């Protein structure tokens, strides 16, 4: 199948439901104990999601502890924890044999005479007996590992060089993590799995289309290439149950498995497709430290957590590697956190631990600079201050006063960011060190003032206070709406519709004549939305008016624009989500099917945007410049190519009919090892007859 040229124009980027993302991020932060949870306690008798999440969190901590013990070669301590918390796992003789074999190697690695005697004892009492009934190849592996007695660990030419490799420890740790996660049902939070899935699809889409991703730097650092070893089913099931081929292919393509790998995964999950999917998805390894930083940046930007105070000081907490781990062993960056902490103090504490923020020219999403639905339509300097710091403080106070007078703000009480470890930062610090930290906090007051203004504008807009928002922004910076006329049109449209709803037709007409008309004259793309807005005069129906007020959508777009005007870049997480959701949509257009797992990961909620024809019209007009710019950056998609295909309606209808014949599609996919879209196109050429397609290919 021909792929589009990278220079092809790209369609408008998919809108994102940022409120749904807020909910997923908050759930992730609570599940990982990153923030204070101020939700009221529930009765012990009720099985609440929070209690389930807490239980899962403790299991995940346990799994992490076992993982680190195995990576350090402390096999006995790991086995002790397994006997206490998951004894049934040790009933699997295959796992027990691998643990004992690694214990034997680790005892020899220490090199002392006493440890050598312990290794011989382990050989006689544990390793040899477990080799007899672990699996058919176990006894051969047992005899092979005996060579470690005579070949030194530094000998790179020995036949047991792989047994001495530190990678064996990490593979064993990954395998045990996979087994325990499924055994204890301790899956990662939904957002953690969703970000893995979206990035994986994004990488695959860019690779297959031969285009470069504008967020490569972020995705490569966040989602690592290596995966944990898969948990395999017991050998008792010699034959795989008759799994539905649709399930096998869906799992194989979703997480990049071979067909046999998908079958084995389904066997291990007892045929449960969604459990198998979660098992495979959690094998993908994230840099959790980086993810936490992205989450914290997003939470501060969206007003979910405080931007200053204890959350700022927590940046001084650094993860340090345990002394017993060799320096040459692999990085443990994918693990959640270490159990030993080092509190760094001094003037550079905050600066040294601040997350790297690459410039917008390197990794920013070229499609779009702000929310695709209501972008500014003009280039804004990322670091252009619009007023002095003193004025920021006055404006922040004024906006906060408006919020209080209108009863706004209580609903979104900000939480305190704890991070992976809650530590008394001031403990064991001198007065001089505390003074230095306080000075650093004072230096960030100006940034906090900017955040307060940005968040106040966002919250007032979400409440529909369009007139107040316009007045305050004009007072803050008289040039803002001259550079962002689309946002002014949207705000004045909301004001117009609210006046119509209240019966003030003369006031509404004044707004239309003073603002909407001149703006539409300046930008012809706004003429059609203006006409549709004026229909409210003739249909003063409350349902129409409410539907046409995209408060939440506009509030996010305005937040991004006003934030950039004040030198506050949008969070990198927003760039990742916007880009990956777009490629997710385009990928499944190519596959000509619906994603079976999107509802499990709440991806469908992220795409649910309450848009009306008026909103869609404006979105299309606003995205034109973004699409033209992004095409030069290699963000072309398949849909543009599909729209350019010179196919007749009959051909399109025929392909659609064939796409519904799953049996024929799966048969061609399986026999010819083809992607779904290619199988559909081949079937369309031969009237949907799978046997004819296969015969023609092999003829």
TrEMBL record:
Q: Where is the composition biased (Low complexity)?
A: 630-640
Q: Where do the segments described as Disordered lie?
A: 349-380, 628-656
> What InterPro entries does its record include?
CTLH/CRA, CTLH_C, Ubq-SigPath_Reg
Q: Which Pfam families match?
A: CTLH
> Secretion signal: which residues?
none
> Taxonomically, which superkingdom?
Eukaryota
- CTLH domain spans which residues? 59-115, 450-507
Against PANTHER family, the record matches this protein to: RAN BINDING PROTEIN 9-RELATED
The molecule here is called CTLH domain-containing protein
């Amino acid at each position: 199948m021909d792929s589009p040229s990278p220079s092809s124009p790209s369609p408008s980027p998919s809108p994102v439901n940022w409120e749904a993302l807020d909910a997923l991020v908050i759930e992730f932060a609570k599940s990982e104990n990153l923030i204070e949870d101020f939700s009221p306690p529930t009765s012990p008798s009720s099985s609440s999601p929070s209690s389930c999440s807490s239980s899962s969190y403790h299991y995940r901590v346990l799994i992490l502890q076992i993982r680190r013990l195995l990576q350090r070669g402390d096999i006995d301590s790991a086995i002790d924890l397994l006997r206490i918390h998951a004894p049934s796992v040790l009933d699997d003789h295959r796992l027990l044999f691998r643990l004992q074999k690694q214990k034997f190697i680790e005892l020899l690695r220490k090199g002392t005479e006493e440890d050598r005697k312990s290794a011989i004892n382990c050989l006689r009492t544990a390793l040899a007996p477990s080799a007899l009934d672990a699996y058919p190849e176990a006894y051969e592996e047992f005899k092979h590992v005996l060579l470690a007695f005579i070949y030194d660990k530094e000998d790179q030419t020995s036949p047991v060089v792989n047994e001495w490799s530190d990678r064996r420890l990490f593979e064993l740790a990954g395998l045990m993590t996979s087994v325990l996660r499924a055994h204890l049902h301790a899956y990662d939070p939904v957002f953690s799995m969703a970000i893995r899935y979206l990035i994986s699809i994004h990488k695959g889409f860019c690779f297959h289309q031969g285009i470069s991703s504008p967020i490569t730097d972020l995705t490569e650092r966040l989602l690592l290439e290596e995966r944990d070893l898969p948990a395999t089913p017991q050998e008792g099931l010699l034959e795989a149950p008759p799994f539905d081929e649709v399930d096998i292919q869906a799992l194989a393509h979703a997480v990049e498995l071979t067909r046999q790998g998908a079958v084995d995964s389904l066997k291990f999950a007892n045929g449960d497709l969604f459990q198998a999917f979660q098992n495979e998805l959690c094998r993908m390894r994230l840099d959790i430290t980086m993810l936490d930083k992205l989450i914290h940046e997003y939470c501060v930007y969206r007003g979910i957590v405080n931007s200053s105070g204890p959350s700022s000081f927590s940046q001084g907490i650094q993860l340090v590697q345990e002394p017993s781990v060799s320096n040459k062993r692999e990085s443990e960056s994918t693990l959640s956190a270490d159990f030993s902490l080092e509190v760094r103090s001094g003037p550079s504490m905050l600066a040294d631990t601040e997350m790297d923020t690459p410039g917008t020219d390197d990794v920013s999403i070229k499609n779009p600079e702000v929310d695709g639905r209501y972008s500014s339509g003009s280039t804004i300097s990322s670091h252009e201050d619009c007023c002095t710091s003193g004025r920021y403080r006055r404006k922040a106070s004024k906006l906060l006063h408006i919020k209080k007078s209108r009863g706004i703000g209580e609903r979104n009480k900000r939480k305190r960011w704890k991070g992976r470890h809650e530590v008394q930062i001031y403990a064991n610090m001198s007065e001089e060190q505390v003074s230095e930290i306080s000075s650093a906090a004072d230096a960030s007051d100006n940034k906090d003032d900017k955040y307060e203004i940005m968040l106040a504008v966002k919250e007032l807009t979400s409440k529909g206070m369009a007139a107040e928002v316009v007045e305050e922004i004009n007072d803050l910076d008289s040039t803002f709406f001259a550079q962002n006329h689309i946002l002014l049109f949207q705000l004045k449209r909301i004001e117009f519709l609210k006046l119509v709803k209240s019966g003030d037709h003369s006031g509404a007409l004044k707004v239309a004549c003073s603002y909407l008309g001149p703006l539409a004259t300046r930008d012809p793309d706004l003429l059609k939305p203006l006409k549709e807005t004026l229909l409210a005069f003739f249909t003063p129906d409350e349902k129409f008016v409410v539907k046409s007020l995209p408060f939440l959508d506009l509030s996010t777009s305005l937040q991004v624009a006003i934030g950039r005007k004040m030198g506050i870049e949008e969070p990198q997480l927003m760039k990742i989500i916007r880009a990956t959701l777009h490629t997710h949509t385009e990928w499944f257009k190519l596959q000509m099917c619906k994603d079976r797992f999107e509802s499990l990961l709440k991806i469908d909620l992220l795409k649910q945007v309450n848009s009306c024809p008026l909103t869609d019209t404006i979105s299309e007009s606003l995205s034109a410049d973004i699409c033209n710019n992004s095409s030069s950056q290699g963000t072309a998609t398949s849909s543009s190519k599909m729209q350019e295909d010179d196919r007749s309606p009959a051909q399109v209808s025929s392909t659609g009919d064939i796409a519904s014949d799953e049996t024929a599609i799966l048969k061609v996919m399986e026999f010819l090892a083809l992607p779904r879209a290619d199988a559909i196109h081949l079937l369309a050429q031969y009237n949907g007859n799978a046997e004819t397609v296969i015969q023609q290919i092999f003829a």
